[in-house]
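Input:
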Amino acid sequence: MTAEALPRSQAVATGSRRDRPLDLIGIVLTALTLLVALASFFPIYWAIITSVKPDGEVISGSNSLWPGRFVFDSYIHIWNNTNIATWYVNSFVTSIVITALVIVSSAGCAYALSQLDFPGRRIIYVLILACFMVPMQALIVNHFVLMAQFKLLNTWAGIILPQLIVPVVIIVYKQFFDSVPKEFREAAQMDSAGHFKILFRIYLPMNWGVTAALAIITFIGAWNSFLWPFLAATGEATMTVPVGITQVKDAYGIVYGKLMASAVVAGLPVAIVYLIFQRRVTQAIMLSAGVKG
Amino acid sequence: MADIVLSDVSKSYGQVQVLDSVSMHIKSGEFIVFLGPSGCGKSTLLRMIAGLEEVNGGQIHIGDTRVDQLPPNQRGVAMVFQNYALYPHMTVRENMSFGLQNVGTDKAEIARRVEDAARMLEIGALLERRPSQLSGGQRQRVAIGRAIVREPRAFLLDEPLSNLDASLRVRTRVELAQLHQRIGTTMVFVTHDQTEAMTLASRIVVMNNRRIEQIGTPMEVYSRPASRFVAAFVGSPAMNFLPVSSIAESDGQAVVNAGGVSIATEIPIANLPSGDGLTLGVRPDALKVTAGGSISGVVEIMERLGDRTLVHVRLPDGSLVVAEDGGKSALEPGATVSLAAARSEMHIFDAEGIAYHSS
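Output:
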């Protein structure tokens, strides 16, 4: 007897999820999901297609979804006529340093909040939670004034320092450290390990998947960051890629083909990271979404 | 090896007292078992010796050193945890070496100690595996190995057999006893399993309700329990308890009326307190089914254990007792039987639960 021949309730009870035929709601939801996916992907597709169209075709107003002829002039132009290599170096350095410092400092902070008993622990944790209520934009003037006073504008340090405040990483780590049985810490204490050794030799390796996920999402966030680097780096020598591509224009104003080429180049590392670590990125988004509620 | 001395050790969490003025002297080389029900404070006491719990009052000495203010790694003890707490990302060798590396032990010395311990525990073939690739019994051995390589003055074991299945637990119990004989180091073992306590211990510390009820050898605890709690907690099947309705004297010894029958004991009547609330205690193995026994009753249930049979007998006043018969007992439920109680193995408990035994 097949699942289709059974009454609906029985078919659900006996058939596996994969074997079950899609019902009407399922078909509608699937179609809707597909539509949203296409709508999300279309701007990326449009950017790529525009970047390989000849300039004439771009400005002609034709909205063809496929270029009449593939040219890579825009890519050659931005490589030869902009500081994109420098912007790339700046983006790599700042993103990697931000990722490393955020992971190390957040893990240390979370370990202290999770495992150590000290006065004010709860208050500090509540303050970290409260940081969610203050958007980055609200602090940007303070950050700018502070960095200016320290003479750190137009430096890597100036771009990096304000971006080290990532409370969600602390909270995700704390949740994971809370879930590690305390016997591991106690066993390590019996083994003469201090807190730094317990954190770096026991707790972090035990939560390696979480660290990888958080590092990836922090890296992507740092790479894509625009507002603060835009304010902190006014000279082309210290601009990051997302800030640098605003400089891609010529005497005739905005040139869409070249702008799209630089946008594609800017997004490439993030796309590569995402494609390689897709599962970890999804995990990280779910972890941080769980925290943000 | 070292003595461990606890003097008036107390522990409380806020207003909740979990240990109340506990004192004891564990002699060097002894295998001491803390036995008691869940929540009696036995694990807390072990953790206080280890340094994992703060001591609120009293002192702990290991050897000549007062240790209750020292961190765990400076007390010279090693601990085996209930869930073993093996670091999952390290191999067996790394797990066993970790503690020695942290104190700067020479690499060759670490390798020697790990190899020696692995040979002793027969885990040499497992050294490059991770804990997830080991069975429960193998993990347990590795946890002991991790403790052995530190060459501690005492081993502290917190219910290390409770995660093993029944047959493995029996085997590991024997191996643990052999290990203790071989290395002779002081061992303090926490369990709520009386069989583990009886088979492993040099002395058992029976704990209940924040304090020590009795310290004694397994046979002392079994044969001469200090309190009704100890009598009920130790021994399987449990001791029979019958309320005493009256006491008479015969040659200076108590003859009690309990369960609707008169039962002679060897307990000096002069030792017994006056007043009500006395209870007679007799273990099933001291109450035998025998022709011509002085106690008669009706068989309700038979539990055939192979080498012996436990017979549940309803006494004239309606009380139910468990007695013993041979493995090939021909009794059937409903039969009338007579029981003989060994006079020297009778116990009387007063209203506070204090025990009185034959002299």
